[in-house]
Design brief:
Layout (H helix, E strand, L loop, with lengths): L6 H12 L4 E8 L4 H6 L3 E5 L9 H15 L5 E6 L5 H4 L4 E9 L4 H4 L2 H20 L4
Parallel strand pairs: 1-4, 2-3
Antiparallel strand pairs: 2-4
Length: 139
């Protein structure tokens, strides 16, 4: 089992697989790499695991919905929606639609991320992205 995830993350993912959850959203803050480049990195990145369908697959669509929602009314820049190439165990081991969000950098975004109201806004926007994604599947 190739994985960069911790044992707890994989246990949690395997539990959710067993419980037949519809989606999995793993929320993180990105660490600062330090130096000049680390100080310039900012904003959100949403990772998804998918095959050849890429952004057209369900995980890619969920990643886009969340990325768009977080970027709407926060000062965080929308960075990228990136396909995981097997390095994020929580995504590769999931049977369900799954994404991992990096919602800001601990370097350049730290002032914004230190405000509880901003964290609540980010969380609410992630929820709105999930609702947007799930509403696309309603008849």
């Amino acid at each position: 089992m190739k994985s960069a995830a911790t044992g707890f993350q994989l246990f949690d993912t395997l539990y959710k697989n067993r419980e037949n959850a519809d989606i999995l959203v793993s929320i993180h803050l990105n660490s600062n790499r330090g130096g000049i480049i680390g100080a310039m990195l900012k904003g959100t990145t949403v990772f998804y695991h998918g095959g050849m369908e890429g952004l057209l697959g369900d995980s890619g669509k969920l990643a886009k919905s969340i990325n768009d929602a977080v970027g709407k009314n926060t000062s965080l820049s929308k960075n990228k929606i990136r396909r995981d190439h097997g390095n994020l165990g929580i995504l590769t081991e999931s049977y369900m639609v799954a994404v991992l969000t990096e919602t800001g950098y601990m370097g350049a975004d730290i002032a914004y991320l230190s405000n509880n109201a901003n964290l609540k806004l980010i969380g609410n926007n992630i929820a709105l992205g999930i609702v947007e994604h799930l509403s696309c599947f309603c008849p």
